[in-house]
Amino acid sequence: MFASLKDKDGAVLVFDKETFVSIHMFFVFFPLDVFWVDSNFRVVDARFGVKPFSPLVMPKGKAMYVVEARCGLVKGANVGSRVKLSF
Q: Whose CB among 23, 36, 81, 84 lies 3.0–4.6 Å from 59's, allowing a Cys bridge?
């Protein structure tokens, strides 16, 4: 998905409703932090340092948003915390 990613860039994937959204890291050449966020903007799962070419990463809960960012960019986004998304 990402050929490169600037230091403060990321991606927010938005879905029509909360669902179990898996990701893969095929053709992503650097690790990412990934956060699954529900419709109330609460983090339902967080994975830090997801390795390149990981075949399948499943969240522990349903999400409406998936945030992918450079490792260490997002601070304080732990499971159960409320986040503010700007996109």
A: 36
Question: Strand 63-70 to strand 10-19: parallel, antiparallel, or no bridges (unpaired)?
Answer: antiparallel
- Residue 68's Cβ-count burial label (10 Å; 0-12, 13-18, 19+) is buried
Q: What is the mean pLDDT of each run of 10 residues along the chain (87 residues)?
A: 62 94 92 95 95 95 94 85 85
- Residue 50 in any domain: the answer is yes
Distance CA 17, CA 25 (A): 23
pTM of the predicted structure, to 2 decimals = 0.86
Does a structural domain hold residue 23?
yes
Domain count, the chain: 1
Whether residue 81 is contained in a domain is answered as no
SS3 85: coil
